[in-house]
Amino acid sequence: MTAFKPLVFSGVQPTGNLHLGNYLGAIKKFVALQDTSDCIYCVVDLHSLTAQLVHEDLKDQTRAITAAFLASGIDPKKHIVFNQSRVMQHAELAWIFNCVARIGWMNRMTQFKDKAGKDRENASLGLLAYPSLMAADILVYRATHVPVGDDQKQHLELTRDIAQKFNNDFSDRIAGLGVGVEMNVGEETVNGFFPLTEPIIGGPAARIMSLRDGSKKMSKSDPSDLSRINLTDDADSISKKIRKAKTDPEALPGELDGLAGRPEAENLVGIYAGLAEISKEAVLKEFGGQQFSVFKPALADLAVEKLAPVAGEMRRISGDRAYVDAVLSDGGERAGLLAEATMKTVRDIIGLLQG
Ligand code: AQP
């Protein structure tokens, strides 16, 4: 569908402890995609300022997410790992996209509505413009694929809208400079500078929910630590949190249909499936008819078995701060070269005077 060189980009904010949702929804996919694609993985520190401007320990949080990437199996030599603020072209392109995107588009974003709450007038401009920076993160590398959790689907659609509007608004200049790439948009073949990036979402763990409330996604910012399994939790905490996870009194059904209207049960089945790398159907085949008193201990054992090695590696890698910093510095340099190549052309397309 596209003639752009396939390239994967994704990012994680250094806003707190990584949890099972981040791991199953995003990081596990990052690791798997390394075998088939060139990948760029970024700790998006500039994004984290939208939630909280003054951080006590932003540098250490950035290192901790990097350690989680590496501990999970991301190879920083074959691919690129860096933190966003090292490559200022992200912010430069975000500014241009702020001028391409419309305020109405941003106002419609459910994440903005959720995070701004009732006092929208008092939310930071950065929080409103978050998706524009996210589009810049992706498109400054002209990335074609973005593995994310289900909660980021709307932002990815907006990234496509921004790319499409830029391609349309500047179509003559893109053609004049000969920097377009042919791609199919619906029935049409158009020439654009930015790809219409595809999200990679799906599988049984695309949206992991809170262990305390099956209607809320598992989140770093949930005040209850019992709502999430942190990647740094020890075996006892993992088992305790799964034991205390909210459920209903029914046994597990044998078929997927039987999970309808049972969000907490569905969530635990999804977590099991994500960790075991099998489908929810396969989990129900094994545990259908069983009570949670049987399923929860099996889930806890599986979670400990899969997460303990990652937590151990994270601790080991975090202890070597010089290594983590070297990875980010090397990745930043390599990412910076790619981003600058894109921005040179973007400045030409727009008509900015440069040396
Ligand atoms: N509950 C989740 N289930 C599946 N995937 C998830 N992701 C986040 N929560 C879940 C995915 O993890 C990646 C990194 O997320 P992020 O840290 O950049 O942003 P976020 O979505 O804002 O994460 P949190 O934990 O919910 O943080 P707060 O509480 O600060 O808002 C993304 O691919 C995301 O989809």
UniProtKB/TrEMBL annotation:
Extent of motif 'KMSKS' region: 217-221
Protein residues bound to L-tryptophan: D137
Record-listed E.C. numbers: 6.1.1.2
Subcellular location field: Cytoplasm
Residue runs in coiled coils: none
Molecular-function GO term, any one: tryptophan-tRNA ligase activity
Motif ('HIGH' region): 14-22
Family membership noted in the UniProt record: Belongs to the class-I aminoacyl-tRNA synthetase family.
PANTHER family tied to this protein: TRYPTOPHAN--TRNA LIGASE, MITOCHONDRIAL
Subunit structure: Homodimer.
NCBIfam families per UniProt: trpS (TIGR00233)
Protein name: Tryptophan--tRNA ligase
Originating organism: Mesorhizobium escarrei
Species classification: Bacteria, Pseudomonadati, Pseudomonadota, Alphaproteobacteria, Hyphomicrobiales
